[in-house]
Write a structure and sequence with these properties.
Layout: H1 3-22, E1 32-36, H2 41-53, E2 58-62, H3 65-73, E3 79-82, H4 86-91, H5 97-102, E4 105-119, E5 132-133, H6 135-142, H7 152-156, E6 169-173, H8 178-190, H9 192-202, E7 229-232, H10 235-244, E8 250-255, H11 256-262, E9 268-270, E10 276-277, H12 281-287, E11 292-293, E12 299-300, H13 302-305, E13 316-323, H14 339-353, H15 360-363, H16 370-384, H17 421-426, H18 432-436, H19 484-512
Parallel strand pairs: 1-2, 1-3, 5-9, 6-7, 6-8
Antiparallel strand pairs: 3-13, 4-8, 4-13, 9-10, 11-12
Helix pairs in contact: 1-19, 2-14, 6-8, 8-9, 10-11, 14-16
Length: about 525
Protein backbone atom coordinates (compact mmCIF):
# COMPACT_ATOMS: atom_id res chain seq x y z
CA UNK A 1 0.00 0.00 0.00
CA UNK A 2 1.40 3.45 -0.93
CA UNK A 3 2.41 5.98 1.69
CA UNK A 4 -0.43 8.31 0.62
CA UNK A 5 -2.95 5.53 1.14
CA UNK A 6 -1.55 4.85 4.59
CA UNK A 7 -1.65 8.57 5.38
CA UNK A 8 -5.25 8.79 4.28
CA UNK A 9 -6.27 5.83 6.41
CA UNK A 10 -4.31 7.30 9.31
CA UNK A 11 -6.21 10.55 8.98
CA UNK A 12 -9.48 8.64 8.91
CA UNK A 13 -8.47 6.91 12.13
CA UNK A 14 -7.63 10.24 13.74
CA UNK A 15 -10.99 11.72 12.75
CA UNK A 16 -12.82 8.66 14.09
CA UNK A 17 -10.85 8.86 17.33
CA UNK A 18 -11.78 12.51 17.68
CA UNK A 19 -15.44 11.75 17.14
CA UNK A 20 -15.36 8.95 19.71
CA UNK A 21 -13.62 11.23 22.21
CA UNK A 22 -16.35 13.83 21.82
CA UNK A 23 -19.26 11.38 21.89
CA UNK A 24 -20.97 11.09 25.28
CA UNK A 25 -20.61 7.82 27.12
CA UNK A 26 -23.69 5.67 27.48
CA UNK A 27 -25.27 6.38 30.87
CA UNK A 28 -27.59 4.37 33.06
CA UNK A 29 -30.17 6.68 34.61
CA UNK A 30 -32.25 6.20 37.72
CA UNK A 31 -34.95 8.31 39.37
CA UNK A 32 -33.76 11.41 41.24
CA UNK A 33 -36.10 13.29 43.55
CA UNK A 34 -35.96 16.87 44.74
CA UNK A 35 -38.02 19.31 46.78
CA UNK A 36 -37.91 22.89 47.98
CA UNK A 37 -38.37 26.34 46.48
CA UNK A 38 -41.73 27.42 45.10
CA UNK A 39 -40.01 30.50 43.62
CA UNK A 40 -38.42 28.17 41.06
CA UNK A 41 -41.45 25.87 40.88
CA UNK A 42 -42.69 26.83 37.39
CA UNK A 43 -39.18 26.65 35.97
CA UNK A 44 -38.63 23.29 37.63
CA UNK A 45 -41.82 21.93 36.05
CA UNK A 46 -40.51 22.95 32.64
CA UNK A 47 -37.11 21.36 33.31
CA UNK A 48 -38.64 18.22 34.74
CA UNK A 49 -40.86 17.73 31.69
CA UNK A 50 -37.96 18.34 29.32
CA UNK A 51 -35.67 15.97 31.17
CA UNK A 52 -38.27 13.22 31.44
CA UNK A 53 -38.92 13.44 27.69
CA UNK A 54 -35.21 12.71 27.16
CA UNK A 55 -35.21 9.70 29.43
CA UNK A 56 -33.77 11.53 32.45
CA UNK A 57 -36.22 10.63 35.27
CA UNK A 58 -36.68 13.56 37.66
CA UNK A 59 -39.37 14.42 40.20
CA UNK A 60 -39.69 17.67 42.19
CA UNK A 61 -42.08 18.83 44.91
CA UNK A 62 -42.40 22.58 45.57
CA UNK A 63 -42.71 22.65 49.37
CA UNK A 64 -40.67 25.77 50.16
CA UNK A 65 -36.92 26.30 50.44
CA UNK A 66 -36.54 25.46 54.15
CA UNK A 67 -38.45 22.19 53.77
CA UNK A 68 -36.40 21.24 50.72
CA UNK A 69 -33.06 21.99 52.38
CA UNK A 70 -34.02 19.95 55.44
CA UNK A 71 -35.30 17.03 53.37
CA UNK A 72 -32.07 17.12 51.39
CA UNK A 73 -30.07 17.04 54.62
CA UNK A 74 -32.13 14.13 55.90
CA UNK A 75 -31.49 12.30 52.57
CA UNK A 76 -35.22 12.11 51.91
CA UNK A 77 -34.52 13.73 48.53
CA UNK A 78 -31.49 13.82 46.24
CA UNK A 79 -31.41 17.57 45.62
CA UNK A 80 -33.12 20.74 46.80
CA UNK A 81 -34.28 24.01 45.30
CA UNK A 82 -33.62 27.07 47.44
CA UNK A 83 -33.15 30.82 47.68
CA UNK A 84 -32.36 30.53 51.40
CA UNK A 85 -28.79 29.80 52.44
CA UNK A 86 -28.05 27.08 54.97
CA UNK A 87 -26.42 29.52 57.39
CA UNK A 88 -29.42 31.86 57.22
CA UNK A 89 -31.86 29.02 57.86
CA UNK A 90 -29.89 27.96 60.91
CA UNK A 91 -29.80 31.52 62.24
CA UNK A 92 -33.53 32.02 61.61
CA UNK A 93 -34.50 28.75 63.27
CA UNK A 94 -35.33 27.03 59.99
CA UNK A 95 -33.08 24.00 60.37
CA UNK A 96 -30.29 23.36 57.89
CA UNK A 97 -27.95 21.49 60.24
CA UNK A 98 -28.51 18.16 58.49
CA UNK A 99 -27.59 19.73 55.13
CA UNK A 100 -24.29 20.82 56.67
CA UNK A 101 -23.70 17.27 57.79
CA UNK A 102 -24.51 15.77 54.39
CA UNK A 103 -22.49 18.33 52.44
CA UNK A 104 -23.70 20.50 49.60
CA UNK A 105 -22.95 23.08 46.92
CA UNK A 106 -25.03 25.98 45.62
CA UNK A 107 -25.74 25.73 41.88
CA UNK A 108 -27.44 28.81 40.32
CA UNK A 109 -30.16 27.58 37.97
CA UNK A 110 -32.29 30.57 36.84
CA UNK A 111 -32.83 34.28 37.38
CA UNK A 112 -36.21 35.41 38.66
CA UNK A 113 -38.02 38.25 40.39
CA UNK A 114 -40.56 38.81 43.13
CA UNK A 115 -43.64 40.48 41.67
CA UNK A 116 -45.86 42.74 43.77
CA UNK A 117 -49.40 41.63 42.91
CA UNK A 118 -52.48 43.52 44.02
CA UNK A 119 -56.27 43.60 43.92
CA UNK A 120 -57.60 47.15 44.26
CA UNK A 121 -60.68 48.95 42.94
CA UNK A 122 -61.31 52.68 42.67
CA UNK A 123 -64.20 54.62 44.20
CA UNK A 124 -66.43 53.55 41.29
CA UNK A 125 -65.63 49.87 41.83
CA UNK A 126 -63.42 49.53 38.74
CA UNK A 127 -60.31 47.36 38.99
CA UNK A 128 -57.08 49.34 39.12
CA UNK A 129 -54.48 48.43 36.53
CA UNK A 130 -50.94 49.73 36.10
CA UNK A 131 -50.45 50.65 39.74
CA UNK A 132 -47.09 52.44 40.17
CA UNK A 133 -45.21 52.14 43.47
CA UNK A 134 -41.85 53.34 44.67
CA UNK A 135 -39.51 50.83 46.30
CA UNK A 136 -39.74 52.65 49.61
CA UNK A 137 -43.54 52.59 49.46
CA UNK A 138 -43.62 48.84 48.85
CA UNK A 139 -41.21 48.20 51.70
CA UNK A 140 -43.19 50.38 54.09
CA UNK A 141 -46.45 48.63 53.10
CA UNK A 142 -45.03 45.21 53.92
CA UNK A 143 -43.49 46.50 57.15
CA UNK A 144 -46.96 47.78 58.13
CA UNK A 145 -45.75 51.40 58.13
CA UNK A 146 -48.23 52.28 55.35
CA UNK A 147 -51.57 50.69 56.14
CA UNK A 148 -54.26 52.35 53.96
CA UNK A 149 -54.71 52.60 50.20
CA UNK A 150 -55.23 56.37 50.21
CA UNK A 151 -51.81 57.00 51.74
CA UNK A 152 -50.12 60.05 50.13
CA UNK A 153 -47.11 57.93 49.10
CA UNK A 154 -49.38 55.78 46.90
CA UNK A 155 -51.34 58.74 45.58
CA UNK A 156 -48.16 60.61 44.61
CA UNK A 157 -46.98 57.97 42.13
CA UNK A 158 -50.34 57.40 40.45
CA UNK A 159 -51.21 60.67 38.81
CA UNK A 160 -52.49 62.24 42.01
CA UNK A 161 -55.48 59.89 42.16
CA UNK A 162 -56.31 58.89 45.71
CA UNK A 163 -57.46 55.32 46.11
CA UNK A 164 -60.26 54.49 48.56
CA UNK A 165 -59.66 54.93 52.26
CA UNK A 166 -59.51 51.20 52.93
CA UNK A 167 -57.06 49.13 54.99
CA UNK A 168 -54.35 47.27 53.07
CA UNK A 169 -54.55 43.49 53.46
CA UNK A 170 -51.21 41.73 53.00
CA UNK A 171 -51.05 38.37 51.25
CA UNK A 172 -48.07 36.13 51.89
CA UNK A 173 -46.79 32.65 52.54
CA UNK A 174 -47.73 30.58 55.54
CA UNK A 175 -44.97 28.58 57.16
CA UNK A 176 -41.30 28.93 56.29
CA UNK A 177 -40.42 30.29 52.86
CA UNK A 178 -37.29 31.28 50.95
CA UNK A 179 -39.35 33.76 48.94
CA UNK A 180 -40.36 35.49 52.18
CA UNK A 181 -36.71 35.76 53.23
CA UNK A 182 -35.78 37.07 49.77
CA UNK A 183 -38.53 39.68 49.75
CA UNK A 184 -37.88 40.90 53.29
CA UNK A 185 -34.20 41.30 52.49
CA UNK A 186 -35.37 43.87 49.94
CA UNK A 187 -37.65 45.47 52.57
CA UNK A 188 -34.79 45.64 55.08
CA UNK A 189 -32.43 47.37 52.65
CA UNK A 190 -34.94 49.82 51.19
CA UNK A 191 -36.77 50.92 54.36
CA UNK A 192 -34.55 49.90 57.30
CA UNK A 193 -36.34 51.97 59.94
CA UNK A 194 -39.77 50.59 59.07
CA UNK A 195 -38.32 47.07 58.80
CA UNK A 196 -36.59 47.22 62.18
CA UNK A 197 -39.78 48.47 63.82
CA UNK A 198 -41.73 45.64 62.18
CA UNK A 199 -39.27 43.00 63.38
CA UNK A 200 -39.18 44.54 66.84
CA UNK A 201 -42.97 44.30 67.16
CA UNK A 202 -43.05 40.69 65.99
CA UNK A 203 -40.04 38.92 67.48
CA UNK A 204 -42.33 37.00 69.83
CA UNK A 205 -45.20 36.71 67.34
CA UNK A 206 -43.94 33.83 65.19
CA UNK A 207 -41.02 35.55 63.42
CA UNK A 208 -37.95 35.61 65.60
CA UNK A 209 -35.84 36.50 67.39
CA UNK A 210 -33.44 37.15 64.52
CA UNK A 211 -29.71 37.90 64.70
CA UNK A 212 -28.59 41.10 62.91
CA UNK A 213 -28.65 40.71 59.13
CA UNK A 214 -30.83 37.59 59.20
CA UNK A 215 -34.19 37.93 57.46
CA UNK A 216 -37.46 36.31 58.53
CA UNK A 217 -38.42 33.10 56.78
CA UNK A 218 -42.00 33.31 58.00
CA UNK A 219 -44.57 36.00 58.73
CA UNK A 220 -46.24 36.84 62.06
CA UNK A 221 -48.94 34.43 63.12
CA UNK A 222 -50.16 36.36 66.15
CA UNK A 223 -50.34 39.93 67.39
CA UNK A 224 -51.83 43.06 65.79
CA UNK A 225 -49.86 42.84 62.51
CA UNK A 226 -51.01 39.26 61.96
CA UNK A 227 -54.62 40.45 61.72
CA UNK A 228 -53.79 42.19 58.43
CA UNK A 229 -52.24 39.13 56.77
CA UNK A 230 -53.88 36.41 54.72
CA UNK A 231 -51.38 33.56 54.48
CA UNK A 232 -51.41 30.75 51.91
CA UNK A 233 -49.47 27.52 51.64
CA UNK A 234 -48.03 27.92 48.16
CA UNK A 235 -47.37 30.31 45.30
CA UNK A 236 -50.28 29.15 43.15
CA UNK A 237 -52.74 29.96 45.92
CA UNK A 238 -51.31 33.46 46.39
CA UNK A 239 -51.50 34.36 42.70
CA UNK A 240 -54.95 32.80 42.29
CA UNK A 241 -56.28 34.71 45.29
CA UNK A 242 -55.03 38.04 43.96
CA UNK A 243 -56.23 37.33 40.43
CA UNK A 244 -59.75 36.24 41.36
CA UNK A 245 -60.34 39.18 43.70
CA UNK A 246 -61.49 37.04 46.61
CA UNK A 247 -59.52 39.22 49.06
CA UNK A 248 -60.34 42.84 48.13
CA UNK A 249 -57.89 45.69 48.68
CA UNK A 250 -55.00 43.28 49.03
CA UNK A 251 -51.37 43.20 47.96
CA UNK A 252 -49.00 40.24 47.93
CA UNK A 253 -45.62 39.02 46.74
CA UNK A 254 -44.42 36.00 44.81
CA UNK A 255 -42.32 35.00 41.81
CA UNK A 256 -43.48 36.76 38.64
CA UNK A 257 -44.22 33.54 36.76
CA UNK A 258 -47.24 32.93 38.97
CA UNK A 259 -48.60 36.41 38.25
CA UNK A 260 -48.27 35.66 34.53
CA UNK A 261 -49.85 32.24 34.92
CA UNK A 262 -53.00 33.60 36.61
CA UNK A 263 -53.03 37.10 35.04
CA UNK A 264 -52.73 38.80 38.42
CA UNK A 265 -52.21 42.60 38.19
CA UNK A 266 -48.58 43.43 38.92
CA UNK A 267 -47.22 46.75 40.17
CA UNK A 268 -44.75 48.84 38.22
CA UNK A 269 -41.81 49.40 40.59
CA UNK A 270 -39.39 52.33 40.43
CA UNK A 271 -35.63 51.82 40.25
CA UNK A 272 -32.61 53.94 41.08
CA UNK A 273 -32.79 55.65 37.67
CA UNK A 274 -36.35 56.78 38.40
CA UNK A 275 -37.88 54.45 35.82
CA UNK A 276 -40.84 52.18 36.56
CA UNK A 277 -40.46 48.58 35.38
CA UNK A 278 -42.16 45.20 35.45
CA UNK A 279 -40.28 41.97 36.19
CA UNK A 280 -39.75 40.75 32.63
CA UNK A 281 -36.59 38.90 31.58
CA UNK A 282 -34.76 41.95 30.19
CA UNK A 283 -35.43 43.87 33.42
CA UNK A 284 -34.37 40.96 35.63
CA UNK A 285 -31.17 40.43 33.64
CA UNK A 286 -30.28 44.11 33.81
CA UNK A 287 -30.88 44.20 37.57
CA UNK A 288 -28.70 41.20 38.31
CA UNK A 289 -25.67 42.80 36.66
CA UNK A 290 -25.15 44.25 40.15
CA UNK A 291 -25.61 41.00 42.06
CA UNK A 292 -22.52 40.08 44.02
CA UNK A 293 -21.76 36.37 44.08
CA UNK A 294 -19.65 35.06 46.92
CA UNK A 295 -16.99 32.36 46.32
CA UNK A 296 -19.60 29.63 46.97
CA UNK A 297 -21.91 31.39 44.41
CA UNK A 298 -24.47 32.43 47.03
CA UNK A 299 -25.80 35.93 46.37
CA UNK A 300 -25.68 39.33 48.04
CA UNK A 301 -28.31 41.61 46.48
CA UNK A 302 -27.93 45.10 47.92
CA UNK A 303 -26.44 46.30 44.63
CA UNK A 304 -29.48 45.00 42.75
CA UNK A 305 -31.87 47.11 44.82
CA UNK A 306 -29.95 50.28 43.85
CA UNK A 307 -28.78 49.35 40.35
CA UNK A 308 -28.78 52.60 38.27
CA UNK A 309 -29.49 50.82 34.98
CA UNK A 310 -32.89 52.22 33.86
CA UNK A 311 -34.04 48.76 32.79
CA UNK A 312 -33.59 47.36 36.30
CA UNK A 313 -36.43 45.59 38.08
CA UNK A 314 -35.05 45.90 41.61
CA UNK A 315 -36.58 42.85 43.35
CA UNK A 316 -34.65 40.29 41.29
CA UNK A 317 -32.63 37.30 42.47
CA UNK A 318 -31.18 33.97 41.41
CA UNK A 319 -32.53 30.63 42.51
CA UNK A 320 -30.31 27.64 43.31
CA UNK A 321 -30.07 23.90 43.24
CA UNK A 322 -28.44 22.24 46.20
CA UNK A 323 -26.59 19.05 45.29
CA UNK A 324 -23.86 16.88 46.81
CA UNK A 325 -20.25 17.38 45.74
CA UNK A 326 -17.08 15.38 46.13
CA UNK A 327 -14.59 18.25 46.28
CA UNK A 328 -13.97 21.87 45.35
CA UNK A 329 -15.96 23.53 48.14
CA UNK A 330 -15.45 23.64 51.89
CA UNK A 331 -19.02 22.35 52.19
CA UNK A 332 -18.43 19.27 49.96
CA UNK A 333 -18.54 15.94 51.80
CA UNK A 334 -18.94 13.38 49.03
CA UNK A 335 -21.22 12.65 46.11
CA UNK A 336 -24.00 10.12 45.64
CA UNK A 337 -23.30 6.52 46.61
CA UNK A 338 -24.97 5.30 43.38
CA UNK A 339 -23.17 5.92 40.09
CA UNK A 340 -26.49 5.91 38.22
CA UNK A 341 -27.79 8.70 40.44
CA UNK A 342 -24.67 10.76 39.72
CA UNK A 343 -25.18 10.23 35.98
CA UNK A 344 -28.84 11.24 36.20
CA UNK A 345 -28.27 14.35 38.27
CA UNK A 346 -25.38 15.55 36.12
CA UNK A 347 -27.49 15.07 32.97
CA UNK A 348 -30.34 17.02 34.59
CA UNK A 349 -28.01 19.87 35.56
CA UNK A 350 -26.68 20.06 32.00
CA UNK A 351 -30.23 20.11 30.64
CA UNK A 352 -31.11 23.03 32.93
CA UNK A 353 -27.95 24.94 31.98
CA UNK A 354 -28.63 24.84 28.25
CA UNK A 355 -31.94 23.76 26.70
CA UNK A 356 -33.69 24.29 30.03
CA UNK A 357 -33.13 28.05 29.72
CA UNK A 358 -34.97 28.39 26.39
CA UNK A 359 -38.48 28.88 27.84
CA UNK A 360 -37.56 30.87 30.93
CA UNK A 361 -38.48 34.36 29.66
CA UNK A 362 -41.82 33.11 28.37
CA UNK A 363 -42.90 31.67 31.73
CA UNK A 364 -41.77 34.57 33.92
CA UNK A 365 -38.06 34.17 34.59
CA UNK A 366 -34.83 35.22 32.86
CA UNK A 367 -32.25 32.77 31.48
CA UNK A 368 -28.86 32.55 33.14
CA UNK A 369 -26.03 34.59 31.64
CA UNK A 370 -23.41 32.39 29.90
CA UNK A 371 -20.97 32.50 32.81
CA UNK A 372 -23.54 31.00 35.20
CA UNK A 373 -24.54 28.27 32.76
CA UNK A 374 -20.84 27.44 32.75
CA UNK A 375 -20.88 27.45 36.55
CA UNK A 376 -23.52 24.71 36.35
CA UNK A 377 -21.01 22.63 34.40
CA UNK A 378 -18.35 23.42 36.99
CA UNK A 379 -20.78 22.19 39.65
CA UNK A 380 -21.19 18.97 37.67
CA UNK A 381 -17.42 18.54 37.78
CA UNK A 382 -17.50 18.84 41.58
CA UNK A 383 -20.27 16.23 41.65
CA UNK A 384 -18.76 13.71 39.21
CA UNK A 385 -15.03 14.27 39.61
CA UNK A 386 -14.72 14.65 35.82
CA UNK A 387 -13.47 17.75 33.92
CA UNK A 388 -16.09 20.44 33.44
CA UNK A 389 -17.70 20.58 30.02
CA UNK A 390 -16.99 23.94 28.38
CA UNK A 391 -20.13 25.55 26.96
CA UNK A 392 -20.41 27.72 23.88
CA UNK A 393 -22.97 28.68 21.25
CA UNK A 394 -22.28 25.47 19.36
CA UNK A 395 -23.24 23.11 22.18
CA UNK A 396 -25.64 25.07 24.42
CA UNK A 397 -29.21 26.13 23.68
CA UNK A 398 -29.35 28.86 26.35
CA UNK A 399 -30.56 31.96 24.43
CA UNK A 400 -27.92 34.14 26.09
CA UNK A 401 -25.22 32.23 24.19
CA UNK A 402 -26.96 33.36 21.00
CA UNK A 403 -27.42 37.06 21.75
CA UNK A 404 -30.95 36.99 23.18
CA UNK A 405 -33.13 36.14 26.15
CA UNK A 406 -35.83 34.13 24.39
CA UNK A 407 -39.48 34.80 23.59
CA UNK A 408 -41.38 37.00 26.03
CA UNK A 409 -38.35 38.88 27.36
CA UNK A 410 -39.57 42.44 26.83
CA UNK A 411 -42.07 44.20 29.09
CA UNK A 412 -45.10 46.13 27.82
CA UNK A 413 -44.67 49.87 27.50
CA UNK A 414 -45.40 51.83 30.65
CA UNK A 415 -48.83 53.41 30.00
CA UNK A 416 -47.69 56.56 31.82
CA UNK A 417 -44.59 56.97 29.64
CA UNK A 418 -46.37 58.88 26.85
CA UNK A 419 -47.53 61.51 29.33
CA UNK A 420 -44.14 62.50 30.61
CA UNK A 421 -43.98 59.86 33.31
CA UNK A 422 -45.64 59.47 36.68
CA UNK A 423 -43.88 62.49 38.17
CA UNK A 424 -45.14 64.74 35.36
CA UNK A 425 -48.68 63.55 36.02
CA UNK A 426 -48.35 64.01 39.73
CA UNK A 427 -46.95 67.52 39.49
CA UNK A 428 -49.34 68.81 36.85
CA UNK A 429 -47.56 67.64 33.72
CA UNK A 430 -50.61 66.56 31.71
CA UNK A 431 -53.67 66.22 33.91
CA UNK A 432 -57.35 66.12 33.04
CA UNK A 433 -58.80 63.52 30.72
CA UNK A 434 -55.36 62.50 29.52
CA UNK A 435 -54.79 60.95 32.91
CA UNK A 436 -57.84 58.79 32.50
CA UNK A 437 -56.58 57.36 29.24
CA UNK A 438 -53.28 56.43 30.87
CA UNK A 439 -54.73 53.29 32.34
CA UNK A 440 -53.80 54.50 35.80
CA UNK A 441 -55.84 54.08 38.96
CA UNK A 442 -59.52 54.82 38.47
CA UNK A 443 -59.31 54.50 34.71
CA UNK A 444 -58.99 50.97 33.45
CA UNK A 445 -61.25 47.97 33.66
CA UNK A 446 -59.15 45.49 31.66
CA UNK A 447 -56.00 43.61 32.60
CA UNK A 448 -52.69 45.34 31.85
CA UNK A 449 -53.34 48.38 29.70
CA UNK A 450 -50.75 47.96 26.95
CA UNK A 451 -48.79 45.29 25.15
CA UNK A 452 -46.29 47.04 22.88
CA UNK A 453 -42.53 46.71 23.17
CA UNK A 454 -40.81 48.79 25.82
CA UNK A 455 -39.28 51.93 24.41
CA UNK A 456 -36.51 51.89 26.99
CA UNK A 457 -35.57 48.33 26.10
CA UNK A 458 -34.81 49.38 22.54
CA UNK A 459 -32.24 51.99 23.56
CA UNK A 460 -28.57 51.11 23.92
CA UNK A 461 -27.71 53.90 26.37
CA UNK A 462 -29.54 56.05 28.86
CA UNK A 463 -29.45 59.85 29.05
CA UNK A 464 -26.22 59.73 31.05
CA UNK A 465 -24.48 57.42 28.59
CA UNK A 466 -24.87 54.34 30.78
CA UNK A 467 -25.60 51.03 29.13
CA UNK A 468 -29.14 49.65 29.21
CA UNK A 469 -28.13 46.45 27.41
CA UNK A 470 -29.15 43.27 29.24
CA UNK A 471 -25.94 41.66 27.93
CA UNK A 472 -24.13 43.43 30.77
CA UNK A 473 -26.05 41.24 33.18
CA UNK A 474 -23.19 39.23 34.64
CA UNK A 475 -22.45 39.13 38.37
CA UNK A 476 -19.67 41.45 39.48
CA UNK A 477 -17.53 38.62 40.83
CA UNK A 478 -17.35 36.80 37.50
CA UNK A 479 -13.81 36.48 36.14
CA UNK A 480 -14.46 35.06 32.66
CA UNK A 481 -14.58 31.63 31.08
CA UNK A 482 -12.72 29.39 28.68
CA UNK A 483 -13.19 28.03 25.19
CA UNK A 484 -12.45 24.38 25.90
CA UNK A 485 -15.47 22.95 24.11
CA UNK A 486 -14.91 25.12 21.06
CA UNK A 487 -11.24 24.14 20.95
CA UNK A 488 -12.09 20.44 20.77
CA UNK A 489 -14.42 20.98 17.85
CA UNK A 490 -11.91 23.26 16.14
CA UNK A 491 -9.30 20.51 16.32
CA UNK A 492 -11.70 18.04 14.74
CA UNK A 493 -12.52 20.47 11.94
CA UNK A 494 -8.80 21.00 11.33
CA UNK A 495 -8.23 17.25 11.12
CA UNK A 496 -11.04 16.96 8.58
CA UNK A 497 -9.76 19.86 6.47
CA UNK A 498 -6.25 18.40 6.23
CA UNK A 499 -7.11 14.74 5.95
CA UNK A 500 -10.17 14.67 3.68
CA UNK A 501 -8.25 15.32 0.41
CA UNK A 502 -5.67 12.67 1.31
CA UNK A 503 -8.40 10.23 2.22
CA UNK A 504 -10.21 10.71 -1.09
CA UNK A 505 -7.01 10.25 -3.13
CA UNK A 506 -6.02 7.20 -1.15
CA UNK A 507 -9.38 5.50 -1.64
CA UNK A 508 -9.23 6.17 -5.38
CA UNK A 509 -5.80 4.49 -5.58
CA UNK A 510 -7.08 1.46 -3.69
CA UNK A 511 -10.12 1.22 -5.97
CA UNK A 512 -7.91 1.24 -9.10
CA UNK A 513 -5.96 -1.71 -7.76
Amino acid sequence: MHRKSLAALGCAALVLAGQLALAPAAEAFTQVNGSGSTYVGLAMSDWQNGANSRGIPVNYSALGSPAGVNQYGDRTVDFAGTEAEVSSLQAAGGGGLSADQRGYQYVPDVAGAVAVMYNVTDAAGRRVDSLHLKRDTIARIFARDITRWNDPAITATNGGFALPDRPITLIGRSGQSGTTALFYDFVAHVAPNAYNAFIGRNTDKGIGPLPPGVRPIQLPTMGPDADFYRLFADSDQIAQTVANGSVPFSIGYDEFGYAKKYNAPTAWVDNEAGQYTLPYAANIAAALSKANLRPDLSQELSGVYTNPNPLTYPISAYSYLMTPCASGRDTCKGGYSEAAKTDTMSAFVEHIACDGQINMARIGYSPLPPNLSQEMMNANARLTGQPAKQLNAGNCGNPTFHGGLGAGATAPQDPFAGMGGVDALTHGGTGGSARTSAGGPGASTGPHASAGPSSSAAEATDANGGSTDWRNAEPTSYQGGGLGGFGAWAALVLFAAICTPLLVRGLRRIKRR
